[in-house]
Amino acid sequence: MLRKKYQQDHSHLIDELIRHNKPTAILSIKLVGLSKIANHMIYEVSLIDNGNEKTIPVIAIDATQAIARLDHYIQSGIPEVTMQWMLGSERNVPDPQHRPNRDSARDQ
To answer: What are the angstrom distances between the C-alpha of 54 and each of 1, 6, 62, 73, 91?
Structure first.
């Protein structure tokens, strides 16, 4: 457990991060459920992105994959609602069984 002297109010923490030139940071990752997709879970990631607080659901195999999927969209200026749809929709999770046909990719 973190000592009381290190614990900060949520809004105060965000203000401090911005004041110390850290406008982008992950505040928390919370496992909130299991996905319909085999071996995938739903994580709720709270972060500040360019000084804006966002809460994004991410469907991933584990927390490291959740961060990796989120990494592509950080500091891109994409609105929170769009990021929620892109990362939190089961329709947007790549199918690990699907492999693109290399021959058809070469023909194009």
So the answer is: 25, 23, 20, 12, 21
Q: Which residue, 33, 97, 40, is CA-closest to 69?
A: 40
Count of C-beta atoms within a 10 Å radius of residue 70: 22
Domain edges within the chain? 26-93
Give pLDDT tens digits for 12-47: 888 888 888 888 889 999 999 999 988 999 999 999
Q: pTM of the full predicted structure?
A: 0.74
Tokens of 1: 């457990």
Q: DSSP string spanning the chain?
A: ---GGG---HHHHHHHHHHTT---EEEEEEEEEE-SSTT-EEEEEEEEETTEEEEEEEEESSHHHHHHHHHTTTTS---HHHHHHHHH-GGGSPPTT----HHHHHH-
